[in-house]
Automatic annotation (TrEMBL), chains A, B:
Family (UniProt): Belongs to the NAPRTase family.
E.C. designation(s): 6.3.4.21
Gene Ontology biological process terms in this record: NAD+ biosynthetic process via the salvage pathway
Nicotinate/nicotinamide phosphoribosyltransferase domain residues: 152-321
One of the record's GO molecular function terms: nicotinamide phosphoribosyltransferase activity
Organism: Anaeromicropila populeti
UniProt PTM comment: Transiently phosphorylated on a His residue during the reaction cycle. Phosphorylation strongly increases the affinity for substrates and increases the rate of nicotinate D-ribonucleotide production. Dephosphorylation regenerates the low-affinity form of the enzyme, leading to product release.
Keyword presence, Glycosyltransferase: yes
EC class of the enzyme, as a word: ligase
UniProt lineage: Bacteria, Bacillati, Bacillota, Clostridia, Lachnospirales
One cellular-component annotation, GO: cytosol
Pathway as given in its UniProt record: Cofactor biosynthesis; NAD(+) biosynthesis; nicotinate D-ribonucleotide from nicotinate: step 1/1
Protein name from the UniProt record: Nicotinate phosphoribosyltransferase
Positions of the Nicotinate phosphoribosyltransferase N-terminal domain: 8-131
Amino acid sequence: MIKENLTLLTDFYELTMMQGYYKNNRNDRVVFDVFYRTNPSGSGYAICAGLDLVIQYIKELHFTYEDISYLRSLNIFDEDFLDYLAGFHFTGDVYAIPEGTVVFPMEPLVKVIAPIMEAQLIETAILNIINHQSLIATKASRVCYAARGEAVMEFGLRRAQGPDAGTLGARAAVIGGCVGTSNVLCAKEFGVPALGTHAHSWIMSFENELTAFRTYAELYPSNTTLLVDTYDTLRSGVPHAIQVFKELRDAGKMPAKYGIRLDSGDLAYLSKKSRQMLDDAGFIDAGICASSDLDEYLIDSLKSQGAAIDSWGVGTNLITSKDCPAFGGVYKLAAIEQNGTFIPKIKLSENQWKITNPGNKTIYRIYETDTGKIKADLIALVEETFDESKPLLIFDPISTWKKTTLKPGKYKMKEILLPVFRNGTCVYESPTVLEIKAYCQEQLATLWDETRRLINPQEVYVDLSKVLFDLKNEILDTVNSQKESD
Amino acid sequence: MIKENLTLLTDFYELTMMQGYYKNNRNDRVVFDVFYRTNPSGSGYAICAGLDLVIQYIKELHFTYEDISYLRSLNIFDEDFLDYLAGFHFTGDVYAIPEGTVVFPMEPLVKVIAPIMEAQLIETAILNIINHQSLIATKASRVCYAARGEAVMEFGLRRAQGPDAGTLGARAAVIGGCVGTSNVLCAKEFGVPALGTHAHSWIMSFENELTAFRTYAELYPSNTTLLVDTYDTLRSGVPHAIQVFKELRDAGKMPAKYGIRLDSGDLAYLSKKSRQMLDDAGFIDAGICASSDLDEYLIDSLKSQGAAIDSWGVGTNLITSKDCPAFGGVYKLAAIEQNGTFIPKIKLSENQWKITNPGNKTIYRIYETDTGKIKADLIALVEETFDESKPLLIFDPISTWKKTTLKPGKYKMKEILLPVFRNGTCVYESPTVLEIKAYCQEQLATLWDETRRLINPQEVYVDLSKVLFDLKNEILDTVNSQKESD
């Protein structure tokens, strides 16, 4: 959707640092990892999304004449550096986990291997895009889980944080499981279903509700969903809807799909009462759609109370991920090349789990062969090799006494970080959004139910290989002994 | 910033309703109001923002050949309606409260008077834009209030909900009071200061912290702010920064602006300790900037504990308005023209305060002449006239016993809803973002301190004129008696 050049969509300090490297003739290749530390909304997993836009962004990276003129006007950048920017394009490698994959904390979702000036420039936009779309895809998968397979429609455009948030957010919501979106631009750009019927203003613009319903039913004879809460749901809206359905039945013009939409009031009570009224009139296949401040918790609660709702329109709480509106992805330096070798780097912190994992890494997903479920993920250095015909010892990198040995034949390993750019050339083709959605459903099926639970889910283990674990401790020891000697 | 055509940035039901009106030869002029019911984040007010993009959006409204082809492919729209869309442009009137104005619940922030098909199409995009930017401008004004006049910098791009949320959100943050943004694209597009220095990766890419600091200071001799928490703030970062400042002082090259940035740990403790160390070394004018999960509450708490911080970088919590990530603006039908007269319309609800205000309205802001502070806002019908030389009786529209009579000379009235489009032509020129920011500061000065309080603020009265109040009750009585007789 985004057609403009996003090259300046970066933090100012990326440019001041770039000039610093440029002036010091430093353009060593580096490894940066995008990862996050906590699943959003208390989830047991996240769904990564946004890669397609990252690819588009990197492909189109260049500073226009206007961009350079603007930067010159700030009187902080020298002409030689501006000349360098004018010829800038991305020459590095990018690896990423495909969109729609279930992912866990500390895993590199994207890995950039590039000269430091290039790697630094693209930090902010990559984080912005991956953080946003992963957040909404994750939220959508939770809402759809609560709806237990019933249709969830994304209706949040009017409350989204700007046009992109509405459009790219709706894309992510479909990846996470929504059947479609009310956002026509998203539907067109990404080839997903556009959904919706009419608003209260439609009803109010007619002399009465019955006429408004009748007119709508005539216009849209194959899918007639009537909004019943403009005046009084049970005393006016549902009776009028039933009257129109009867007229259609009497005329032999029953729509293929028809029903009502509830948009206010107590949805459990109103849906059960409405269901009864529809059934009593013989409309047992009439659908009942609900919308109104829904999220995964309210849907779950309504389901557990036996609400007679069979499709769900979810707006604000999904498109903003209201209870957790930011995905905490970060972009951390993991290694710097010196004389052809990557020297691993680490970022310290008072909190052990905030210390980064050093080196040029990849991720293996370990499946149980008999269930197909995820046993654990294993972060390892790229040069390590694993042999599935041998036992595999895995252990928790913080509580190291938590160990398991996997027997040959009982587990399978699959590398999930895939090449996307090599030497600046894109080597990856994004699937369509509906293909990503289908893949995401397969991915969700590899999680144990306990991990999908909405509240206090079972965590999936993300372990470090023995080699990576030892390397990390070795560097920590060295850094700490340097600090002691200061 | 947004260069693409946003005409399809609309809910699908706007188009199905439009076709419904088209097929029924109904294109009566209508009045729609954009208003909200509750201030975000428990605030006593909101700052409206986004109008400039709304103007741009309406000016550029048209369906491209590609848009029409897409809509045709859905097999729900007839050729005659698609022909109408192909020739569509906006012909109506728009009134709005200027960006940067303080506003209160129930006030029309934007009023659209247009043929119903046009008014319906633009609902979603107007809400999306106004909701988003008003949300962030309001949040920014709260964060800046907490910082008590000290500089607040917008640093949230990497955690924003997509590129627009980062860029238009940063624009709104500056309107609300931020001194600038890290987002270079926003800085360029909207002419606001671009801010930032370096990241942890800069420090980590050098053999040691001291070299990283020295190199940075050489590069940026007029503004040298050093990030001191990469390894150990008090044992490594601050001592190394002081060493570099001493070297600059000894060389007679003291930067005009210099200091340190804290980005982790306990900011109250670290800032006081760092201040002492800087002061002891004679650097009493060194600035201390803090960033790290800040919001208005944490800044207020740090200030009350005497934290020695003089500028604030605020990211995630501002750019997403984390505690309240959606602004609840709605778009409600207020009147329909019949035979040249607007017939007022009302939307019922179980909740009295959710019932809409009918008719073609405007808003007068009433100031106390001796203080210049806002006394109340008055929503009235456009045809009403008021005479400041006479006493003015105002009363709360729900608790009607709350009455005040304002004496002539003691109050002033100013209409705040201004014309923006007339007959489809834009008649309003947006100020620059920095002009809007300055205007917003003036606006905030018209609020009582009690209304600016971060928690449980004093509410500002938004009253209805007697004429509007009576009209509303008359319509409610009619609707209720119709329901009784059904």
